[in-house]
Amino acid sequence: MELKSNIPDGPLEKKWEKYRNDMKLVNPANKRKYKIIVVGSGLAGASAAASMAELGYEVECFCYQDSPRRAHSIAAQGGINAAKNYHNDGDSVFRLFYDTVKGGDFRAREANVHRLAEVSVNIIDQCVAQGVPFAREYGGLLDNRSFGGAQVSRTFYARGQTGQQLLLGAYQALERQIGLGKVKMHTRHEMQELILVDGVAKGIVTRDMLTGEIESHLAHAVCLATGGYAPVFFLSTNAMGCNTTAIWRAYKKGAAFANPCYTQIHPTCIPVTGDHQSKLTLMSESLRNDGRVWVPKKPGDKRAPKDIPEDERDYYLERKYPSYGNLAPRDIASRAAKEACDNGLGVGETGRGVYLDFADSIKRLGQPAIEEKYGNLFEMYERITDENPYKVPMRIYPAAHYTMGGLWVDYNLMSTIPGLFVMGEANFSDHGANRLGASALMQGLADGYFVAPYTVGNYLAGVKSGPVVAADHAAVKAAETAVKERIDKLMAIKGKKTPTHFHRELGKIMWEHCGMARTEAGLKKALELIPKLREEFWSDLLVSGTGDELNQSLERAGRVADFFELGELMCLDALERRESCGGHFREESQTPDGEAQRDDANFCHVAAWEYKGEGQVPERHVEPLAFESVHLATRSYK
Amino acid sequence: MSAEKTLNLTLKVWRQKNAASEGGFETYAAPGVSTDMSFLEMLDVVNEGLITQGAEPIAFDHDCREGICGTCSMVINGRPHGPKERTTACQLHVRSFKDGDTISIEPWRAKAFPVRKDLVVDRSAFDRIIAAGGFISAPTGSAQDANALPIPKENADLAMDAAACIGCGACVAVCPNASAMLFVSAKISQLALLPQGQPERYIRVRDMVAQMDAEEFGSCTNHGECETACPKGISLENIARMNRDYLKASLIYRPKVATGGAG
Amino acid sequence: MQTGAGFFGSSIGKKIVMAITGILLVGFVTVHMIGNLQLYLPAHEGVYALDTYGEFLRTLLHGSGIWIARATLLTAAILHIWAAWGLTLMNRAARPVAYQNQAYVASTFASRWMRVSGVVVLIFIIVHLLHLTVGNLLPGFEQGKVFHNVVTGFQVPWVSAFYILAMVFFATHLHHGIWSMLQTLGLSHPRYNGLRHGLATLLTIVVIGGNISFPIAVLTGFVR
Ligand SMILES: Cc1cc2nc3c(=O)[nH]c(=O)nc-3n(C[C@H](O)[C@H](O)[C@H](O)COP(=O)(O)OP(=O)(O)OC[C@H]3O[C@@H](n4cnc5c(N)ncnc54)[C@H](O)[C@@H]3O)c2cc1C
Ligand code: HEM
Ligand code: HEM
Ligand code: SF4
Ligand code: F3S
Ligand code: FES
User: Touching check for A275 and chain B: CB below 8 Å?
Assistant: First the structure.
């Protein structure tokens, strides 16, 4: 397998423009003779499907929810970055590019990130034209805020619902094309297999989640925009249905999987309350602007927070990172919280939580000021925990949030399988080893609105139009059979334990050994535990009902089965990457004062894994990363 | 601090095998559920029990579990999303109930939302209403600079209020007429309040209302239930605005004339 | 796509028809009640004010005035009932399977019983016309002697009881109807919503209060 990034020549800031001018075009009259499948209707999928349909291609779009509007992009709260420099505070395409590369700990591809920063400005224009109600100032112009530790105000937002509003914009554009008959939408359809004909992606096999019917859909190109896989940890901030199935099937058909171990753990989530917990809720990062993080100095101190005197509290972020204090980046703040709890200083019933205290801010600014800034967040916190954060400090704990890893793609967003494109969180993305706040929405929309419509067209220009392959082509039938067999196999086990049970157990292993901090011993242990648990899964699983009806326990079982395999690959990847970078912290690789220590000499590359067959160890390939426009620097937040 | 407490609850749940079959209520015990659980987590626990007993778990729609995707949909004790104001079913907590309570759980009921299984209904009618006109035609790449069009903050805020709708369908579920007017008017209002939405303003309201009627939702007789059941607090004012626009659209209506030829 | 029939066929179109006819009907009952207040005016040279008023109405525009008014009212009433019927069918069909358990918070008895109260009003109008316009409901009706007809009518206890009961239903119809018609016509603004409810309540109290006062005044012998 060769990892050809296909980065165009020329100076960094001219690459994309020049490349677009050199692309092959499909004759407008011929576009409707090409069919494109888009799996996923989140920001990336919906924007791509709508844009490509507008161009004239025939598009079929799939999602597992009952409506494309419900993709998990809807949950994003904070905002979306764009280098508009509306505030004249010195922002520029280059600065956004640089911040993203640095934030990603120098593990992303320069050319991609620069393109991302370039099109970021068009995204805002596009969304406003669609009627996205971004926050505005009294003068009627767009408001911005600074987010995720950025030095400039470049984050556009729509109350606490930026993801929802952006998604609705894309969804409306998509629905418009559906109404015009240019997009055929398949809701409640789960992609279960990729169809390859002579090594080229030509379609997918889906399961109709209402009837259980297995169907194949054929197309000249297949785009996957199926989102992230954080629920491999069982508990995460992702939706219950987020899964790896689509990209995992593609991986097993030959698409390289890049950097699977890069996961982002978000520091400000509401802690777990018990074993019944099904998911975790993110509290916006912006809370750290006014909240102070602390734990008691004495292990096992069970006093109520207000009874713990000032000198018996450890404001550990302020202590360790005097210049950034409570605003230290996500990965650093998360690890610090874990460390405190590991040392027995955690608070709350489970001991897995730290205080985020607003008492000082309330004293300084008054409750009304805090209410105005964070009222809805405080309300949400109280709704979930039944505690009033104006009176008692919030309790927070890190939770799995975002996956930087994903299918490897070249500059065209094409995977190692010709004709298979991957967009949004599903690809290994432009965020390197760590994603900055408000950059995922930007990337999803950049891919969908402004990159894929060009690059997919460029690919199609070299593909014969007209019928794809016969519906009874051997490859199609084989893919369908594989899906049916897999479902039958799951149904036939008839053991004693539910899919959720296995998911939870897997999640524990992943969180323990492949979570915020990773060690060689821990990863090796996980690589023993996972196969054992997987074996148990395949022999003691109990799925209720039948395969040919709406069956949520079967859906869950299928996803968990793939998480098992993915989890193993994540641990393998984490084990091989013997450095710390971004969200990947190897305890063996730290500075004397406990900070992440990159190893640029040996690991300044993308690791992409090639599937080698059932029971075989996958092969690790590398794509070296060259930095020409920025200097590799050490992130320091002291 | 919320000292963990447990409750014993009884659930009366609507079970229906599929769209074609008749449904009915089944009673399940939910003993010892923690008050820290969300309502859906309580159902998860009941379901785990059902699966291990070889029974079929209760099918219900859900995804984000943080009140934003609009997927969860069930009528709890006669109220869509349950008794708590501005709260989706997934954000409702068991602590809203008392020990010993019997809780009834039914699906959204409306002709336009046929039941697929148990508590799962088909809300694709909403998507078709949006497809009929709930958008601004702004093809990718054709936009001018975002700040070229200043929008009074008040309008932007009102548009945002309307845009907060999560498309859950609780308004339909609660309306004695199963009317979708709150949902439809929220989208119409959002776009009608913004300058970008003006060119299509009147075509939009006509087409969306026509689709809403074609989907066989009921009509609004101003009961005002929808506003109280809406988890996002969408205001009745939007319905008034839609009516206004619809009246105007009907008064100024001109049939679409085919213009131009092939090519 | 949209034609005139589209408007009348649509849910909102029908609602607007109801609201506009509603304005006419509310206007009529308000004016009618005010006119009827003349029941309390003393007789002038042996002629009751109410009789003069009746005469005035009958001879307005050389006798065509009352027919124009009747035609308008009748059309409004027919359209109102036609739209109500259409919407009722639509709303029934929209929920084929009822809830086992439904808890209302915002809707009122009045809003949920509009059809019933409407039908009661329809029955009332028929009886009322037979009583005071056609005159074949009770013996002793004298064409043109409006005061006499009203007073002798209301002296029959069941007639008064019927009027009072009908007015209770009518009150609920009016109260929800007035608020509802303003909302239907798009008159909604957070600043004035309180006013809208106030207006509905005030008008209902005035119209119904006035109307109920007549049979009571007669029964108690205040007017005889
Ligand atoms: C709580 C939360 C808050 C966030 N806040 C921010 C923020 O403030 N700023 C920011 O930039 N980013 C934020 N992010 C990250 C960002 O929201 C996501 O990375 C981004 O929206 C992903 O978009 P996507 O289109 O790639 O995938 P998604 O929106 O997840 O869409 C995936 C789509 O794929 C479909 N799908 C998945 N699997 C299958 C299958 N097997 N078959 C068929 N269809 C399938 C789904 O139905 C869905 O339509 C946040 C994330 C979370 C969880
Ligand atoms: C208790 C209250 C009422 C009294 C005392 C009253 C009295 C009368 C009288 C005396 C007439 C005959 C007038 C005439 O022939 O000159 C009349 C006519 C009429 N009233 Fe009333 N009325 C009352 C309430 C109502 C109400 C509530 C309605 C409507 C809902 C109504 C509708 C009519 C109509 C439609 C006519 C016929 C007008 C015509 O001649 O075309 N009345 N009323
Ligand atoms: C004749 C029998 C009548 C019937 C069956 C009837 C029925 C109805 C119904 C079903 C509604 C809709 C309820 C709603 O929108 O909330 C309604 C509304 C209304 N009715 Fe009647 N009604 C009748 C007579 C009247 C009369 C005589 C009046 C006038 C005084 C009247 C005034 C109104 C008003 C103002 C509305 C509100 C219109 C709107 O919502 O826009 N109705 N009626
Ligand atoms: S208006 Fe409210 S209740 Fe109706 S769909 Fe939207 S969010 Fe749900
Ligand atoms: S409850 Fe129904 S009747 Fe109208 S005001 Fe709301 S849609
Ligand atoms: S599950 Fe998303 S709103 Fe309830």
Answer: no
- Residue C183 Cα: closest atom of ligand 5: 5
Among C61, C155, C42, C177, CA closest to C110: C177
List C-alpha distances in Å: B7 to A281, B10, B44, B102: 24, 10, 16, 11
pLDDT category of residue C89 using cuts at 50, 70 and 90: very high
Distance (Å, rounded) from C-alpha B248 to C-alpha B246? 5
How far, in Å, CA of A70 to CA of A281, rounded? 17
Residues C104, B176: C-beta atoms closer than 8 Å: yes
Options 3.40.190.10, 3.30.70.100, 3.30.465.10, 3.10.20.30; CATH of B6-116: 3.10.20.30
**8-state DSSP, A155:** E
Taking 70 as the threshold, does the pLDDT of residue B2 lie above it?
A: no
CB-CB neighbors (< 8 A) of C11 in chain B: 179, 181, 209, 212-213, 217-220
Region A109-138: mean pLDDT is 97
* Interior angle at CA A436, CA A512 and CA A355, nearest 5: 55
Q: Is C112 in contact with B176 (Cβ distance < 8 A)?
A: yes
CB contact under 8 A, B51 and A542: yes
* Separation of CA B173 and ligand 4 centre (Å): 10
| Dist CA B149 CA A128 (whole Å) | 9
Instruction: Report percent pLDDT > 90 for chain B.
Output: 92
Q: Which residues of B touch C107 (CB under 8 A)?
A: 176, 223-225
The phi-psi region of residue A79 (left if phi > 0; otherwise alpha if psi is between -120 and 50; otherwise beta) is left
pLDDT score recorded for residue C160: 96
Whether residue A68 contacts residue A46, with contact meaning beta carbons closer than 8 Å, is answered with yes
Ligand nearest to the CA of C32: 2
DSSP secondary structure letters along A107-119 = -S-HHHHHHHHHH
Q: Do C186 and B244 touch (CB under 8 A)?
A: yes
d(CA A348, CA A330): 22
CB of A75 within 8 Å of any CB in chain B? yes
- Contact present, A65 and A187 (Cβ < 8 Å): yes
Give the tokens for residue A197.
């004909």
Complex ipTM: 0.95
Mean pLDDT of A348-363: 94
* Ligand 3 atom showing the smallest separation from residue C181 Cα: 41
Rounded CA separation C221/C219 (Å): 5
Query: For residues A270 and A397, what is the distance between their CA atoms, to the nearest angstrom?
Result: 6
Query: What pTM did the predictor assign?
Result: 0.96
Half-sphere exposure of A601 (CA within 13 A, CB side): 1
Name the B residues in 35-94 with CB < 8 Å from any A CB: 35-38, 40-42, 44-45, 47-48, 50-52, 54-57, 59, 61-71, 87, 91, 93
Q: Does the pLDDT of residue A194 top 70, yes or no? A: yes
Report how far ligand 5's centroid is from the alpha carbon of B226 (Å): 5
- Within-domain flag for C197: yes
Residue B3: pLDDT over 90: no
Q: Are A47 and A173 in contact (CB under 8 A)?
A: yes
Distance from Cα A402 to the centre of ligand 1, integer Å: 9
A254-286: burial string, b at 16+ Cβ within 10 Å, e else: bbbbbbbbbbbbbbbbbbbbeebbbbbbbbbbb
The whole-number pLDDT of residue B257 equals: 65
* B217 neighbourhood in chain C, CB within 8 Å: 11, 94
| Cβ contact, residue pair C91, B179, below 8 Å | yes
Q: Which CATH number fits domain B123-136+148-252: 1.10.1060.10, 3.30.420.60, 1.10.290.10, 1.20.120.530?
A: 1.10.1060.10
Domains of chain A, each with CATH number or no CATH: 39-264+402-460 (3.50.50.60), 268-399 (3.90.700.10), 474-612 (1.20.58.100)
